[in-house]
Amino acid sequence: MSKGKLIVFSAPSGSGKTTIVRHLLLKEELNLEFSISATSRAKRGEEVDSKDYYFLDVQEFKNKIKHDEFLEWEEVYRDNFYGTLKAEVERIWAKGKHVIFDIDVSGGLRIKRKFPEQTLSIFVKPPSIDELKIRLKKRKTETDDKINMRIAKASAELATAPLFDKVVLNEHLENALIESYDLVSNFIKE
After folding, report:
1. What does the buried/exposed string (b/e) look like for 15-54 if buried means 16 or more CB atoms within 10 Å of the residue's CB?
2. Distance from C-alpha of 8 to C-alpha of 23, rounded to nearest angstrom
3. Which of 105, 112, 145, 175 is most solvent-facing, going by the fewest CB within 10 Å?
4. pLDDT per residue over 92-107, tens digit each?
5. Full set of structural domains in the chain with CATH
6. Contact, 180 vs 174, CB < 8 A?
């Protein structure tokens, strides 16, 4: 694979990583493009193939695993796969851009292990588990059971924060946006 920069943002659900990534994508001087993940799950609502995800059926996903077409992948639930296609990263690098990921903790760490020099891994940390629960409830997109599942998973994810290059505390969004911009900008200049 060619040489470009990889910017990984990982965090428990509700920490604000997607908001931060969207903010950074608006900064043209950073020359970033978002890495679209592949998934074997069905489309939800208004999702669009090749924009929100690359939607593959389970067999297609397994064939791509077999042919080593993923940079990283994970089976989240039985036959529910998510991953980053090598071709997606190559597509972005071919445009002369840097790749930015909004990805789960384990996927982010796998990318960092594969490309330690090219990758800046940033963990977005919520102020507390209680605040995380409040944020997830405010979204009004999930049941209490689903929120409780995400909170239970968040505790394990928070324990991985020291494995990342940098940790950004998202207590005040504006500060987290500035800190994230500075980290990415400095890394790209290296």
Report:
1. bbbebbbebbeeeeebebbbbbbbbbbeeeeeeeeeeebb
2. 14
3. 145
4. 999 999 999 999 899 9
5. 6-189 (3.40.50.300)
6. no
